[in-house]
Structures are given as structure tokens and as C-alpha cells.
Amino acid sequence: MTLFILILINLLKILTMKLSLTLSLFLSVHFFAAAETADLKLNAVSTSLAPPKKAKLVVGIVVDQMRYDYLTRYESRFGEGGFKRMIREGFNFKNNNFDYVPTYTAPGHASVYTGTTPKYHGIISNDWYDRTSGKMMYCVDDDNYQSVGTPSKDGQKSPRKMTVTSFADQNRLHTQFRGKTIGIAIKDRGAILPAGHTANAAYWFVGGKEGVWATSDFYMDQLPSWVVSFNDEKRPESYLKVWDTAQDIATYTQSGPDMNDFEGGFKGKSTPTFPYDLKALSSENKGYDILKTTPFGNSLTTDFAIAAIAGESLGFDEDTDVLTVSYSSTDYIGHNFGVNAVETEDTYIRLDRDLERLFNYLDDKVGKGAYTVFLTADHGAVQVPNYLKSVNIPSGYIDMDVVKNALADFLASKYGDGDWIENISNFQVFLNRKLISDRNLVLVEVQASLADFAQSLPQIFETYTAHDMLSNFYEKGLAHRLQKGFSESRSGDVIISVNPGYIEKYSSTGTTHGSGFNYDTHVPLLFFGAGINHGSTFETTYIEDIAPTISALLGIAEPNGSIGRPLVQAIKN
Ligand SMILES: [Zn+2]
């Protein structure tokens, strides 16, 4: 009897469904008779709320210090399976930019994954002056936590200074913590900030005499067995080999001569020229730390990422996992050798091969089209200013100690003797607010007079006060970029920017980054894999658009401080 009723109910259900289908079809045809078939198809597809083909794994790749023009400059040097595969199969945003200052590593990584800028996520630099303690603090240092996997203090880290979620956090919340997050980079900050607050793990490389991947007890009490096994294999030792060019050095025509005056090189070798015997040089260059400044640091990172995919079974089930990989060695090499170096060209040739190896592994283990990859950078870099000077391009170095003395003299002459300046860091001046208050001065007026004076100094481009940043809304230009990088609670009283082509006093060789100019802000943005269209655009996009795009792809909430927009051209509908 019960069975009979069930069958009857089901028959009725089917009849009702058919009726409603017929009705809706009739209505559709009636109302949309004039519409193109394609439009009907689009409507039919877009009624589904779930993304068309949800990635089992999202792999976020940040190449530390990768300028956009490395893609075009080295194009002829790349194979088919790395950068070129991403461009051939995926979407290439050719005019993707940072729109805040400062363009440093920690803010860069935080912004890529949180869809917002330092104003909102609080990571205003790699390290910054803390008014409360009167000391500099490092973005991921946290002595509430202990090292795991190293006897050193290098594991006493957490993401807790970042005040918002990353898209990896949102994926964790969305999947009831079934979808995993693993963060990997040679640099601790490159692993920790992308992975967010709820990551299963973030791992970074401890060099020196150890040569191991380690973490913090923020994540776990002991290393999982796959990490122990990886460390036991002593792979870093196998990379202490001779670094010679991957191809005949005569073919490195995208760079200047190997021997020039603009490169740093390694201690223990008189010229910055190939080949480099890393084993022989390691003792004078902090042991395994030397690997960080070679392309083998990227290869080691790739090895470890592949071990993580296997060890954590990433992308093996329907709950999307997130793997964040940051290639730090490109940055160490850039700082040491500069933009125009054969060493840099060789590093990108080899990184391209590492990417191919990673993608091939993902094809094999997760499946072609079952994972989504994006690749971007945390900032670009300026050409070595001494090199630019040598070819008559205005550029140079500004000595912030000289600037500090000039500012201090000005304040003393205007307001009387006193330690008016607590700190200058990241081109921000922190005034002694207690002294200002004790002398019954108005902070905003002191800020303004100092900013006006600073503006008159050589090579200083623009200055703004904290009050300017908080009381105005700058829609474009450098002021806009400074404002998006300005945190009321963490930034200084006077913000200085220097002329294009100028950097803070540095070694006479190598390069750096940090400005709001295009050499520091214009970086690659490539997507490929599950849910991604093929195409390219010169439309201007911003770094904070990446996280909303991944959120849209996965059908998850955007990170909670996100101010970007999904890049709809890239997403299959
Ligand atoms: Zn960086």
C-alpha cells in the first residue's frame, strides 16, 4: 500500500514537472520568439548558480619581482609548456597594475590574495615602525608561536598582523574546512600571507646550515610525514652545484654583457660572471642561503610544491583546495644582479621549465582542465639606476639619512630643540607626537609644515601628510596610490615619494622596488585551466581584482576586505 502511494506521488511529481517544463517552454517561446537562439542558450546556462566546472584545485603563483615586460622580452626564450602555455590556453591581462604604494613583497602578497590594499589589510610594508613599542616590526613575526621543524627562531611567525581574509580563507569557510589550503615559498611572508588565517599549513625555507622546510606552531605541532621525508632527502644539497647558463651564453641577447659594473654577485668570487660554483661559494654566503639567490631556489620550491600536492592529496576530491606558491628567488636575483642581467634572463628560462614541470604534474595527478592556475607578481623593479645613468636616463639614489638630518634641522629651527622625528622608514616620517603635544603644538600643522619643507628637497617628487590622506579622496595619480597604501593606525605623519628612476640609497649594484611608478606597478596576470576563457586584453586591471575573480570562479564569498571586481572576460559563463 505504502509502495503504491509512493509510486503515485512520484508519478504526480513527474507529471507536474513536465507540465511546468511545457509551460515554461511555451512562455519562453512566446515571450522570446524574437530573441536569438544564442541568447536563449545563455539564459538557460546562467540560471545555474554553480560555476560551470569548479576547479578541484586552485594554484596561485606569485613570481617575486616579475615585471610585465619579462613576458614579452623573454618570449623567444620560453618553451611551450610554461608561460606560453598559460598565454596559449588561458587569459592574459597585459595591463595589470598595483595601484598602491609601497610596492613591496609583503603588501604585494597580501593584496593578491585578499583583493584589497594596505589601507584595508594593514600590511603596509615588509616591516614598519610601531609607535607603541617604538620599534620596527616585521610583518609576520609573532613570538606567541614557536618554530616547527627548525631549532632556529625562523618559525616564530603567523599571519595575524593581516587584518582581513584571503580567498583561501573564504574557500575554507565555504567548504566547511574540507577544502585545504597550503602556502609555500622560500620567504616566510610569501607563504604565510597568501595562505591566510585558516590555512592547514604554510611552509618556508630555512637556509644557513639547515636547508629545510619549516613552519610555525600557529599551524601544527609537528611536521607531517611527507615534509619530514622531503627534508630527509636533502635535496638542497643536490642543488649546491655549478650554476651555468641553461643555454649557450651567446644566445642571451635579451640582456647586457655578463661582465658589467651593475651587478653584485657572490662573496668569494671577484666577478659577477658565469659559472658560479655554489658548493664552493656556499660557506662564504650563509650556507644553504646561497640557493635563494639562484634559480635552484625556484626549482626547490617546485619540488616542494609537487611533494605537497602528493602529500596532502590536493585536488583529489570535489572540495576545492588552494595551493599558494611564491617564487622568491627571482627577487633575490633581481636585487643582486638587476633587471638587465644574464643571470636574470637565465632565471626566467629556468623558471619557465619549472612551471612546465609543475603543470605537467598537475595534468597527470589532478587532471587537465580540473585545476585553475593564476600567475602574477608582488611588484616589479626599476632598472639599476647606475645603469640608467650610464645611458643618460635621469635616475639615481636618495640618501634618507641626509633627508632625515635636513628634516630634523628644519623642525629644530622652527619649533626649538628636540627629538622631533621618531623614525623614518618606507619613505614615511613618524613624528614625536608626545613632544608635539607637550609643546602645545597642533599635530596637523607640524605635519603640513614638514611636508612643505620636504617637498623642497632634491629628488623628492611629492609629499603628503597623514591628514591629507585621511581628509581627502584622491581619485587618480600618485596621491591615489599613496592613499590606498596608507593605514591610519600604522602609517607615518608625512609620506614622501621620490622622483621616477630614483631609489633609496642602495648598493651601487642591483636593484629594488617600492614606488608607485609603472616599473614597480606593472606586473603579469595570467589565468588558465578550469573555468577560464582564452583571450587577452590591454584593458587596465588591478591587483585587487584577482581574489574576486577566483571567488567568482569558485562561487564563494569574496575576501572580507575586498575592493576589487571579478575580471569577467576571463571567466567562462
Ligand atoms: Zn617581493
Polypeptide structure, described:
There is one protein chain. This protein has 573 residues and is of the alpha/beta class. The chain folds into 2 domains: 66-390 and 513-570, Alkaline Phosphatase, subunit A, CATH 3.40.720; 396-499, Gyrase A, domain 2 (2-Layer Sandwich), CATH 3.30.1360.150. The protein is 38% helix and 17% strand. The chain contains 22 helices and 20 strands. Zinc ion is lined by residues 64-65, 105, 108, 331, 378-379.
Overall number of strands: 20
Tell me the helix content: 25-40%
Shape: globular
Q: What structural class do you assign from the helix and strand content? A: alpha/beta
CATH architecture of the largest domain: 3-Layer(aba) Sandwich
* Structure ligands: zinc ion
Cα radius of gyration in angstroms? 26 Å
The DSSP helix count reads: 22
Unreliable spans are 1-46
The fraction of residues assigned to DSSP E strands is 15-25%
